[in-house]
Design brief:
The chain has about 160 residues and is mainly α. Helices cover about 80% and strands about 0% of the residues. It has a two-stranded antiparallel ribbon with strand order 1-2. Helix 1 runs antiparallel to helix 6 and helix 2 packs antiparallel against helix 3.
Length: about 160
């Protein structure tokens, strides 16, 4: 059994649990807007920090030309314009990982390692889902995070009532 101890002011913890509950409801209520907005924010941050890298780096960094920061700016701008592109790229990455592992399993082990086989098949399915249903995958991820936040707030609130 998992033991969960909280020390602190009960009123502050109750307030935190109510705020966490409201955030969880917000995440569940507007998953597409929140997911796409957060992806766009990450794209802007990537472009801004890569731009700072271009501006503040003199000559070379780590023995390479500083022009690789331009790739960061380009990816940040692309993510800002096409936020579901992240899910397509993630899906391609998972798909390539799964296909590589499946070929390796069948070639080397003859599908005897069942755990690795199951992980590869699940990765293959997730890669296909992320590639073809990117917006639905974003919504599902945000909803899962919302449910976790609401569960955490319920546990916090219950612990304040317990003491």
């Amino acid at each position: 059994m998992f033991r969960f101890e909280i020390n602190g002011n009960n009123n502050a913890i109750r307030s935190l649990s109510v705020v966490a509950f409201a955030v969880g409801l917000f995440l569940i209520s507007f998953p597409s807007f929140i997911g796409l907005t957060m992806i766009r924010v990450v794209g802007v941050l990537l472009a801004v920090f890569s731009g700072f890298g271009i501006y503040f780096t003199e000559g070379t960094i780590w023995g390479r030309d500083r022009s690789f920061f331009f790739v960061g700016v380009l990816i940040g701008v692309l993510v800002l314009i096409f936020p579901t592109l992240i899910m397509i790229v993630s899906g391609l990455g998972l798909l390539s990982f799964a296909v590589y592992k499946l070929f390796f399993i069948f070639r080397e082990r003859g599908a005897l390692d069942k755990n690795e086989f199951i992980i590869s098949v699940v990765s293959l399915i997730l890669g296909l889902v992320l590639m073809f249903y990117g917006r639905a995958a974003i919504e599902t991820i945000v909803r899962i995070i919302g449910v976790v936040v609401i569960s955490f707030s319920a546990v916090l609130f219950y612990k304040t009532l317990e003491s």
